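dumping this here before i forget
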Amino acid sequence: MVLSRREQKGINLFSENHVQELSQSRFLVHSENDAPILYEVNWTGKKWTCTCPDFNRKQKNCKHIHAVSYYLTIKAFIPALKPDNEAKLSCPKCGSSEKTLHCIRINKSGPAKRYRCKHCKTTYSNRNGFEGMKNQAKIIATALDLFYKGLSLRKISEHFETLYSIKVSYTTIYYWIAKYVELVERYAPSGPMTTGERLAADETMVKLRGRHLMLWGLLDRETKILVAEHISARRSTEDATILLEKGQSKTKTLEGQVSELITDGLSSYAEALKLSKNRTAPLIHIQGPGLTGIKSNNEMERLMGTVKERTKLTKHFNNETGAKLFSKGFRQYYNNCRGHMALGGKTPSQAAGLSEKKLTWIDLISKAQEKCRQ
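structure:
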């Protein structure tokens, strides 16, 4: 490939360290002939622009823009050249861990290593549970993280295009969320978790595309872990029973069973407790304690307020199935990825002894994919 004069000069500027990064979309590049002179290169969201006379005159990529392009290309290569748990990586066809580095492939989302198996000669990549996906694992995981932190699908799409020059439609991001939340939920640990003796329950009304649904939640007051959630159309005793049965199957204490439940004044909880089974000891039910005091339900009320505020941006989860998908993903995010101030920055899963560190969506998806393969 023959390089143009501007491209060659851009390489020279980059090799002489004449590129300064101010932000992910703003750079300063020294003049080729007069080093003290600096030209500013900016990403406008659609194209690169430069303040040099050559760009202003011809509106084509100048040598300063090419220098920034080479700078970003080499910068993207650095993470790809670092070790990525190669020792644990095995061939998907024959299972052998003996391999060689085949190449580094440049995708739209950046460089990625590709390996060749020494036994069957199959080439493969380390996708960490993201097989068959065009974009890098970190891009997909970032999309899930931003969504559950409060950004809308369109805002996430704009974020990727502005900061990473990656065009991803909001419908693709919705597909990622639906696919990987179901994967994580299907292969998440299903056994009882060790919690404190006090649980708190609450419900709130959320509006999805003109329809009102009830979102129920059950929280452990000691570890702050969100034990169970439930979506329904009513505040019925049957729905309260489903929530409590989910909680009973997922919890255990050092003493055996949960001994105290704090709820608001909804009568469905009291009726559901009368119908509860498989209890060896009575359960103390504190109903309608208010928002202050030792027995308050303010922790659960605050959590429900956060969830309700978050559902305002879930326009694509516009039915009961979508609402259930959102609530499952939020529980995984809240329990495993989000640090809690009352726990010293630890996640509820760490406090409950379910994980040793704060997890990311890549961790959750990789673990789920490993269990799927077993």
